[in-house]
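Q: For a teaching handout, I want to show students what a protein-ligand complex looks like in token form. Below are the inputs, and the small molecule is zinc ion. Please produce the holo structure.
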Amino acid sequence: MRPPRSAVGKWLRLGLAAGLIILLVAGYFALPFSRTRGIRLVRLRQWFDDPAAHPEWSVQAGERCGAAPFLLPTDGYIGFTWGDSFRPGHSHQGIDIFGVQAPGQTPVVAASDGYLTRLPEWKSSLIIRVPSDPLSPGRQIWLYYTHLADTAGNSYISPQFPPGTSEQFIEAGTFLGYQGNYSGDPNNPTGIHLHFSIVLDDGQGSFRNELKIANTLDPSPYLGLPLNASTDPGARAVCGQ
Ligand SMILES: [Zn+2]
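A: Here is the structure, written as tokens, with zinc ion included.
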């Protein structure tokens, strides 16, 4: 005859089952994160090891890929794309282009004609209103640029666009400033790069919160490159692939 199962054993089995479920859920979120993040980091490190050895891995400011409606906004290596995950549950809302020069040296240009705004408190960011989305005419969109300052928040944005600039018309290719490494925390700066994203309008003449990926668009068709993590988790994105 089997001995009766003890209450302790029952709780132990319940605990193990619960632990297994927690592990499965954590794994579900962590796996895509570690896979894309891992590939991107390896490739980015290969680039930084010797950028001069691989000029073919970089894009150029003002370059247009094929018939893309927008110009590439800066020089460098596209290290992270739209939808990349930097931590569990996070999705990158734009692309990160890493130049090879020191902070304040790699030029950033306007990807499109539009109307530039820099809010009074913006040290490293600006946004350009494009009244009619070239891929969805009639819809208004916004092009967001950030990290254009040093670790202490000294701006690398062109003096043409001081804080408080509002609705200043600029043409595609206009010089906007230089790549920097401002993160908001001087003790923990980002790598030197430009973060560029395409942001949806809020329907009231302003832009939605750029920090949420649902408020942004996949920049791939606008720049003529595969820049979407879910369809292209690892390739180096350059014109003419
Ligand atoms: Zn970014």
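A: Two things your students might notice: The chain has a mean pLDDT of 89. Residues 24 and 30 are 10 Å apart (CA to CA).
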